[in-house]
Design brief:
- By secondary structure, the chain is mostly helical.
- The protein has one domain.
- The protein is built from 2 helices and no strands.
- It is globular and about 25 Å long.
- The mean pLDDT is 94.
Length: 41
């Protein structure tokens, strides 16, 4: 849920590939990427 919330945050800011995602742990980063992919569709 945390990763998807970050994806929504990035999406609302207009960031398709946020630079700050490299500072996340592996698990939230994976869910962030999946969430952004879902929101792009």
């Amino acid at each position: 849920m945390y990763g998807y919330a970050l994806a929504r945050y990035a999406w609302l800011r207009g960031e398709t590939d946020p630079a700050w995602s490299r500072y996340l742990d592996t698990n939230p980063r994976a869910y962030l990427k999946r969430g952004l992919r879902y929101l792009r569709q």
